[in-house]
Design brief:
This protein has 116 residues and is an alpha+beta fold. The protein has two helices and seven strands, in the order H-E-E-H-E-E-E-E-E.
Amino acid sequence: MDQVFHESGLDNSVDDSIRKAYIKTRMGSEGQEELYAELLDVNILPFDSERVSSAMWYAAKRQYSKNSYHSYQGVEGRDDTIAVKYRSKSQRRGVEAWLDVIMVMRCYAEKDRLAI
C-alpha cells in the first residue's frame, strides 16, 4: 500500500478528504415539516476510478440488501438506485427510541468521480 501511495504522489500531498453532515428540513406531502440528513464524504483514492466506483456502489448496495430491510417497489430492477425502509434503535442522554428510517440512494458515476 505504501508503494501505491508513493507512486501516485499521495504520500506528499495534502489530505483533501472532506466529511460533513447537514440536517435540513423540507415540506412533506401533507404540509408538515420533515427533517432529513444530507451527508457529504469526499476522499482521494490512488486507484482506477471505474473500479473504485463499482466497488463503492456494490458495498453500499450490499450493506442494505443483506439485512431484512423492506425494499420499495418501483425501483427494483434499477442498478443505480436503492430504496429501503427499516427500524433502528437510538439512544441519546439515557432515552431509548426507535426510529423509522426511509432511505433512497442513487449512484451517479462519471469518468473521474462518483456521487451516491
